[in-house]
């Protein structure tokens, strides 16, 4: 990253005077509230740039979780590299789904009947098998 890009980046950050306060992104934001920074012809998440400038590279397969839950924050001390699954578990999105003990048809989300996908989704194995069987039969 060129020095002029780094300078342009920090012009868009308001650092809180409070210790451990959020560093608010003042530039453009994506519709989901995360800051966006134009760099080399691409929009990049501003919190990822701040983390890389202060901490270093983000390991492959990891995303940054905002411990402050403020999507507009770029304070590297509020960012933790985690898997996408862990990020989903920690977040509010879908949190009510993780509290459910049964699928909509009443099958329990436990043991062999629980399918866990890499992106954090849960599915009922019984319902998934029933759906697959119906799908195969519909193709005959």
Give a written overview of the molecule.
With 140 residues, this protein is an alpha+beta fold. The protein folds into two domains: 3-90, Homing Intron 3 (I-Ppo) Encoded Endonuclease, Chain A (Alpha-Beta Complex), CATH 3.90.75.20; 95-138, no CATH class. It has helices at residues 3-10, 46-54, 84-90, 95-99, 125-138; strands at residues 13-15, 23-25, 36-39, 42-45, 63-66, 79-82, 114-116, 122-124. The strands form four sheets. Strands 1-2 form a two-stranded antiparallel ribbon. A two-stranded antiparallel ribbon has the order 3-4. The termini are far apart. The model has no long low-confidence stretch (mean pLDDT 89).
Layout of secondary structure:
Elements: H1 3-10, E1 13-15, E2 23-25, E3 36-39, E4 42-45, H2 46-54, E5 63-66, E6 79-82, H3 84-90, H4 95-99, E7 114-116, E8 122-124, H5 125-138
Antiparallel strand pairs: 1-2, 3-4, 5-6, 7-8
Name the CATH class of the largest domain. Alpha Beta
Q: What is the N-to-C succession of helices and strands?
A: HEEEEHEEHHEEH
For the residues shown, what is the average pLDDT? 89
Q: Helix- and strand-based class?
A: alpha+beta
Large-scale geometry? elongated
Helix content: 25-40%
What is the makeup of the main sheet? Answer: 2 strands, antiparallel
User: How many E strands?
Assistant: 8
Oligomeric composition of the shown chains: single chain
CATH architectural category of the largest domain: Alpha-Beta Complex
Count of helix runs: 5
How far apart the termini lie comes to 56 Å
| Percent of residues in beta strands | 15-25%
| Domain count | 2
Q: Ranges with pLDDT <50 over ≥5 residues?
A: none
Query: What is the CATH topology descriptor of the largest domain?
Result: Homing Intron 3 (I-Ppo) Encoded Endonuclease, Chain A
Query: What Rg do the Cα atoms give?
Result: 20 Å
């Amino acid at each position: 990253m060129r020095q002029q890009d780094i300078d342009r980046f920090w012009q868009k950050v308001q650092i809180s005077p409070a210790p451990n306060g959020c560093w608010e992104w003042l530039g453009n934001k994506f519709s989901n509230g995360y800051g966006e920074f134009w760099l080399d012809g691409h929009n990049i998440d501003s919190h990822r740039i701040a983390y890389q400038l202060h901490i270093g590279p983000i390991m492959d397969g990891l995303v940054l979780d905002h411990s402050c839950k403020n999507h507009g924050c770029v304070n590297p001390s509020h960012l933790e590299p985690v898997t996408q699954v862990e990020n989903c578990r920690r977040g509010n999105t879908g949190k009510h789904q993780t509290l459910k003990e049964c699928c909509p048809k009443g099958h329990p989300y436990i043991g062999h009947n629980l399918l866990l996908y890499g992106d954090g989704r849960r599915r009922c194995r019984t319902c998934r098998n029933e759906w697959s069987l119906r799908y195969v039969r519909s193709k005959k």
